[in-house]
Design a protein that fits this description.
Helix content: 40-55%
Bound molecules: phosphoenolpyruvate, magnesium ion
Strand order of the largest sheet: 1-8-7-3-4-5-6-2
Length: about 600
């Protein structure tokens, strides 16, 4: 049904993949199926089970066919996502739970599958990590396909689109993204979705401008409407007048040239004007992000989060799977180094089969290295995978949530056992592989001098360090006003850790979000940090301010900040200092909270 035509209507979504484009709207019918809920007779149960299993098989066949048809090598590189979707289709829990519900509750397949999805969805929603939480979108894409097959609905064939269009859909799957013909599709926008969904990651890698999470796009836009979309800011204008169109495009041109200017810094050394060299690296969660890391000037991967390998599945990753992923990582980033963090599960992130004991204080519970030390078989499998991959490039191992010396000694003992096993089996690995501890617990910070004797490097995880040092739950919005990176306690802890590490002759990295903000990065530089690891996109802007600064001035800045007693006074001082020092880079230099 056509909706009333909108003129000059601005709608705001989430910028998923940068680029400003204009095009005609092409409305795609997706994910808007009404699910019939019917009770069935006992005699119909087996027929219903078969109908469900057939829809699963049909979905598998469709995905395989889509994959086979992708000829573009750039697209093919990403088609592993379709394999992930086929894996979801093979998921025991998804199939068995639905079949059981059909049989026990005597309901139709659509209803039964919906009930299974509800359970899975609740589990996914509880995950704090945005990236992992967004993996639930993959489950939705797959289930939407099953539903459509159950209902005998046709899948819109986007490969047949002609002309230069902007696709407007309620949701858009990675399978859809991979089928886009770049000749005919300028970009896409969707009602739902987040920045770190597979679709968003793919569109960024493929350079297709996209805006997601617009909520009302499909209800406001008619096919054929003219749209301007800004994949960076998430703005969409429906049927802009000439005037709006011109000013929008002019504004975008200025931003674009600013961004282009920033990107020039990507390839320059991260060196201050007085010759102090630091290392800017990337935080990633998928090997596919290595190319973006390199493009933005990362000198290695400072944090490879491995949790995603354990997600979206009922079983555990095998040693071979670990090995293959880490090997690709090592080879792709070579000759630079990648730091692989061992599993940081527990607390707010969990594995379905291991989170039955509902902890009262999950953030203080069986998390990260504590989980690994309890489930040593899972831990050893991962360590063997990492060690084997270390024969194929330069890798370092990073242990999360280390609380003190005893824990690191026990952890290293296990690593030693795994190494011995490999030596005995004559399997090659880097025998000198460096081992590091995340510093994110106050007890680790105050014993940094002792810990430094046991590891080759530290990596400060400020996301958790702030939570534990200030006793502020990082996911509780009621106390978020107390989550202050510039709290005098946090600055003192970081400076102390750096000093103790340097006295012991080891290097210190930072891999928490703090590193990605230019203003914070300068303070960290002044405190003597050696390596900064952050999301790839932030690297050029951080590099730019580092290159424009002198280490000596940041050291003096830190001296001044240490005289101030409260976080708000430090923020205020910092704001004035930055405005004076970088008047032209104001917007880029400030973290949101101190821009005001
Ligand atoms: C941190 O705590 O700062 C960190 C980098 O780890 P995560 O955010 O994965 O807990
Ligand atoms: Mg952490």
């Amino acid at each position: 049904m056509a909706v009333q035509q909108q003129i000059n209507k601005f709608i705001q979504g989430i910028g998923a993949s940068p680029g400003v484009i204009t095009g005609k709207a092409y409305l795609l019918e997706r994910f808007k199926v009404r699910l019939p809920q019917k009770r069935i007779d006992p005699g119909q149960v087996e027929e219903e089970v078969n109908r469900f299993l057939n829809a699963i098989q049909e979905s598998r066949n469709q995905l395989t066919e889509i994959k086979e048809k992708i000829l573009d090598p750039q697209m093919r590189k990403h088609s592993f996502i379709l394999d992930v979707h086929v894996l979801i289709l093979n998921d025991e829990m998804l199939i068995q739970d639905t079949v059981d519900t059909i049989r026990k509750k005597e309901v139709n397949a659509e209803w039964a599958l919906d009930l299974t999805l509800e359970k899975l969805d609740t589990a996914f929603k509880a995950i704090e990590d945005e990236y992992l939480r967004e993996r639930r979108s993959d489950l939705h894409y797959v289930s939407a396909r099953i539903f459509r097959n159950l209902l005998g609905k046709k899948h819109d064939d986007i490969t047949k689109i002609k002309g230069k269009v902007v696709i407007v859909a309620h949701d858009f799957s990675p399978a859809d993204t991979l089928q886009i013909d770049l000749e005919h599709v300028a970009g896409f926008i969707t009602d739902i979705g987040g920045k770190v969904s597979h679709t968003a990651i793919l569109s960024r890698s493929l350079g297709i401008p996209a805006v997601v999470g617009l909520e009302v796009a499909t209800s406001l836009i008619n096919g054929g409407d003219i749209l301007i979309i800004d994949g960076e800011t998430g703005e969409v204008v429906i049927n802009p007048t000439e005037e709006v169109s011109q000013s929008f495009i002019e504004r975008k041109r200025r931003i674009k040239s600013f961004k282009r200017e920033i990107l020039k810094y990507a390839s320059l050394p991260a060196e201050t004007r007085d010759g102090v060299r630091v290392r800017l690296q990337a935080n990633i969660e998928m090997v596919e992000e290595v190319s973006s890391a390199k493009m933005h000037g990362a000198e290695g991967i400072g944090l490879y989060r491995t949790e995603i390998l354990y997600l979206n599945r009922k079983d555990l990753p095998t040693e071979e799977e670990h090995f293959q992923v880490y090997r690709r990582l090592a080879e792709n980033i070579s000759p630079a180094t990648a730091t692989i963090r061992t599993l940081d599960i527990g607390g707010d992130k969990f594995l379905p089969d291991y989170s039955k004991n509902n902890e009262m204080n999950p953030a203080l519970g069986l998390r990260a290295i504590r989980f690994s030390m309890k489930e040593t078989d899972i831990f050893k499998t991962q360590l063997r995978g990492i060690l084997r991959a270390s024969a194929h490039g330069k890798l370092r191992i990073l242990f999360p949530m280390i609380s003190g010396v005893e824990e690191i000694l026990q952890t290293k003992a296990i690593l030693g056992e795994v190494k011995k096993g490999l030596i005995k089996a004559k399997i090659p690995f880097d025998q000198e592989i460096e081992v590091g501890a995340m510093i994110e617990i106050p007890s680790a910070s105050v014993t940094a001098d002792l810990l430094a004797r046991e590891v080759d490097f530290f990596s400060i995880g400020t996301n958790d360090l702030i939570q534990y040092a200030l006793a502020v739950d990082r996911i509780n919005e009621h106390v978020s006003y107390l989550y202050e990176p510039l709290h005098p306690a946090i600055l003192r802890i970081i400076r102390m850790v750096v000093q103790l590490a340097h006295q012991a002759g080891i290097s210190v990295a930072i891999c928490g979000e703090m590193a990605a903000e230019p203003a914070y990065a300068l303070i960290l530089l002044g405190m003597g940090l050696d390596e900064f690891s952050m999301n790839p996109i932030s690297i050029p802007k951080v590099k730019k301010v580092l290159r424009k600064s002198r280490f000596e001035e940041t050291r003096l800045l830190v001296e001044q900040l240490f005289q101030l007693p409260t976080a708000s006074e430090i923020e205020c001082f910092m704001r004035k200092w930055m405005v004076k020092r970088f008047p032209d880079d104001f917007i880029e230099c400030y973290p949101e909270e101190i821009k005001a």
